[in-house]
Design goal:
Radius of gyration: 19 Å
CATH superfamily of the largest domain: GAF domain
Order of helices and strands: HHHEEHHEEEHHHEEEH
Number of domains: 2
Distance between the termini: 33 Å
Shape: globular
CATH architecture of the largest domain: 2-Layer Sandwich
């Protein structure tokens, strides 16, 4: 929980701020921070602020090296010519958020800087919707829980019922759409990845594009490519 708070902050944090955020006594947080610093999981700057240490980077490298999913994404992310100019992401679902495990940056600039470890509300993103669509509706309701849903732009939805209708469309189509819900002017298409003996999605791939000038033919080609990428990775994982 403390490591999550430091990581999510995006910049070094003061002891008092962490204590207030976690609603824990300063003495308890101070002791935990000292332990994390000793383990290399956190570091204390000269100004007394706390940030992540180098150990999580070592774990991240180990995870990438041991992950069949990551290796499959790296092998196939460049196999579809239509996707080469675009930014392609690999994400997993954690509670009601998507976490980006890998990002193959494209040559076209985007309004959002997708980065490894970045987190977004699943209900706003095409990758999140693609993974949620693999779940029964009652489970989706349990995962999202709170009402209304978090919105990142005026185009976002705040109703679980509306989201469930989108998920039904995604199941039928084989892909999910984020139409300016993560960032205005941007459209994303995501497809779920399955694995052996896993009835539900284990991950998803998504592609993000500038919406202006996107023709129907280009859209169809992009959708075919991202669903093809998801299928190829799924087949490698035994899905």
């Amino acid at each position: 929980m403390l490591l999550d708070a430091i990581a999510a902050a995006g910049r070094p944090q003061a002891l008092a701020d962490l204590s207030r955020q976690l609603q824990l006594p300063k003495s308890s947080v101070h002791g935990l921070l000292n332990t994390l610093v000793a383990l290399g999981l956190a570091r204390r700057a000269e100004n007394g602020l706390f940030a992540l240490g180098v150990k999580p980077l070592q774990w991240a490298d180990a995870f990438i090296g041991q992950s069949d999913l990551m290796r499959a994404f790296d092998r196939h992310a460049n196999a579809f010519p239509e996707l080469l100019p675009e930014t392609v992401m690999l994400a997993v679902l954690q509670d009601d958020r998507v976490i980006y495990l890998s990002c193959r940056q494209g040559s076209r600039p985007l309004a959002v800087n997708f980065r490894v470890g970045g987190r977004f509300p699943a209900s706003c993103t095409s990758s999140g919707k693609a993974m949620l669509a693999s779940l029964p509706d009652p489970q989706v309701r349990r995962i999202l829980g709170r009402q209304p849903l978090e919105r990142l732009t005026p185009h976002g939805i705040d109703s679980v019922d509306v989201l469930l209708a989108q998920l039904a469309t995604a199941r039928e189509a084989g892909y999910a759409t984020d139409d300016e819900e993560t960032a205005e002017g941007m459209q994303c298409y995501g497809a779920a990845i399955t694995a052996a003996r896993q009835p539900q999605a284990v991950a998803a791939v998504a592609v993000s594009l500038i919406k202006a000038g996107l023709t129907p033919d280009r859209r169809d080609a992009i959708v075919a490519s991202i669903t093809g990428l998801a299928l190829r990775i799924s087949q490698e994982l035994g899905g």
